[in-house]
Structure formats: C-alpha cells, structure tokens
Write a structure and sequence with these properties.
By secondary structure, this protein is mainly alpha-helical. It has twelve helices and five strands. Helix 5 runs antiparallel to helix 7. The chain is globular.
Length: 317
C-alpha cells in the first residue's frame, strides 16, 4: 500500500514533466497480478522528489511514523529492484521524521489479556486455515482463530519484529540452550540477514511449551508447510495485521500495533531487571541509544519508588 501511493505520486510528477526517457519499470508489475504500475523514469527517484512526497503526505495529516514507513518501503523497493530486476539505482539521501514519544506504545498486562480475549472471538472463533486471502486454496480447512495467537505470543516474549517471527523455521529453535537463532526476516529469507543483524533471542519455557502445542496443528501438512514455525500459507502478514487491528478495536485499546509488542517486551524486560546491554543485543540495535527510550518510559513509573529504594540502601549502611 505504501509503495503504491509513492509510485502513484511519482508517476503523476513524471507525467507533469513530460519526460519520455526509458523507464526503470519496464516489464515490472506487482506480484498481486493487478494492473501494471505506471512507467516511471529513474530520474524521479531523487532527494527532491522524496522531500516533496513527504511534505505532501504531511499536509494530508499523515503521522511521522507513517511517513517513515513509506520511506522504509522505498528502501525495500530499491533492494527488490537490484536483487530481482538487476536495476541498481543510486539511493538518494533523505531525512527520517522524528516520531513522537507516543509511538513507543507498549501494552500493560491487562491490555494484553483484553486483546487476547477479543482475538479468540474473531470470526466467531473460527478461522479459515488456507483461504484465498492467505495465499492458499479456498477449501483448506478451518482452525480456531485462537490457534493463530502464538505468533503474537512469540513477538511479545522475544521482542522479534513481525517479519523476523514469520520467517522463523523450526531449526532456529534451540530448545537445549533456551534461545531462538534469528537468521532471516521476510525481506531477507533467501539471502539471510547481515552479520550485524544475526542474534539470539530468549526461548523461555512458557513460549517453548506453547510453540510445541502450536506445532501439532500442522503435523498432517506437507513438509514445505511444516518447515516454518508460522507457515506462510496461513500466517500471511496482511492477514495478521488485519486480525490484530480488529482485535485491538474490539478490546477498545487505542493505538496498539503489532510492532508495539516489541516495545512491550522491551519495557517489561527492563522492569524485571534485564540490563540495557542485554536488551540491546536481544533487540538487535546497533547502539544503546535506541534502548534508552524504553528507560525513559519506565522512569515515569519508577521515579518516586527509586527515591525510597536509594534511601533504604543508604541509611542501612
């Protein structure tokens, strides 16, 4: 959706200039099989045009986080052009928007339980296993909607990004060591992640038991379907986003996205004593400054309590 909006804007801009030079879009069409994208000249992918697009989106009242998502989509598009089409473009530099503190949304235990209860009731408690919208045949069978919930449990208990969770394979789960090896995301499934992004995240007893039970649901399926922890024929990203949004709305929880489950993991981990350096390694951040935002969120709750703790420690000497 982000890419379609961007291309539509750049296509209009290109037609306005009357430029008829060869298009980088020659022979390229969306994977959905819809109508081909409008021809675009490579010259429209400039820092100036991106700034104009960003300004136009902001005038429409679009949030900073949405603008950043759009620009991140463009980055993924450049990767795809180079990898799949052999078209290498010079990436223009552009400024990321500063997001408000409210974007570091995290869920309390009560909010989490409310969303879980609402999720189980979606689709009258039953979900199609492999429907057209999730990439499979129309008659793929039915499963309880609650059977899809382990995906969200995995994210909130590990701090994984949605794409990383959806790309997990059973071989990535190290039961003996109690860790999950993060080796790929949906954007990097074939070529893997960069060395800097490779990491281990916790696989606690609670999550391990839930995933073992989850695995039995697909035991009768093909080996291809069973390779992924969350088979793509069922756990389509758009479908998961839509189901989560519906559950959040039904639970009357405001402004909670799937990515906020990653924030939820971080805040609760710090609250329970996980060090900043450890959390940085788990989340895969390149430096500790990204983690400090979670510390600031916690400080709102612990400022008064910290004074009592220090007094107790000092005067007990």
């Amino acid at each position: 959706m982000s890419l379609r909006k961007l291309l539509a804007y750049l296509g209009t801009r290109n037609r306005t200039t009357g430029d008829t030079r060869p298009s980088v879009e020659a022979g390229v069409a969306p994977a959905t099989g819809d109508e081909p994208w409008a021809d675009l000249d490579a010259s429209v992918f400039t820092a100036e045009s991106l700034r104009e697009y960003r300004d136009a989106r902001q005038k429409d009242g679009i949030s900073a986080s949405t603008v950043n998502r759009d620009l991140n989509t463009l980055s993924a598009f450049y990767d795809w052009l180079a990898r799949k089409q052999g078209i290498v473009l010079v990436r223009p530099e552009f400024k990321w928007e500063g997001e408000s503190k409210g974007r570091d949304r995290w869920l309390s235990g009560e909010e989490w339980r409310s969303v879980q209860a609402a999720f189980a009731g979606l689709n009258q408690g039953v979900s199609q296993l492999r429907g057209r919208r999730s990439g499979g045949s129309a008659g793929g069978g039915l499963v309880p909607t609650s059977a899809l919930w382990p995906l969200f449990v995995t994210i909130v208990l590990t701090g994984l990004r949605l794409g990383e969770a959806l790309a997990l394979e059973w071989g990535d789960l190290d039961m003996a060591r109690g860790v999950i090896h993060v080796r790929r995301s949906l954007r990097h499934t074939k070529r893997g992640k960069t060395d800097a992004a490779l990491r281990d995240v916790p696989l606690g007893k609670e999550l391990a038991e839930r995933l073992e039970a989850h695995r039995t649901i697909f035991a009768g399926e093909s080996q291809t379907l069973r390779a992924r922890v969350f088979p793509p024929q069922v756990f389509n990203p758009r479908r998961m986003q839509a189901l989560w949004s519906r559950a959040v709305a039904a639970a009357q929880i405001e402004h909670a996205t799937i990515h906020d489950l990653r924030h939820t993991f971080a805040v609760h981990a710090l609250d329970k004593g996980v060090t900043i350096n450890t959390l940085q390694a788990i989340l895969g951040h390149s430096d500790a400054t990204m983690v400090m935002r979670y510390v600031r969120r916690l400080s709102e709750r612990h400022t008064a309590a910290s004074g009592d703790l220090v007094a107790a420690s000092v005067f007990a000497l």
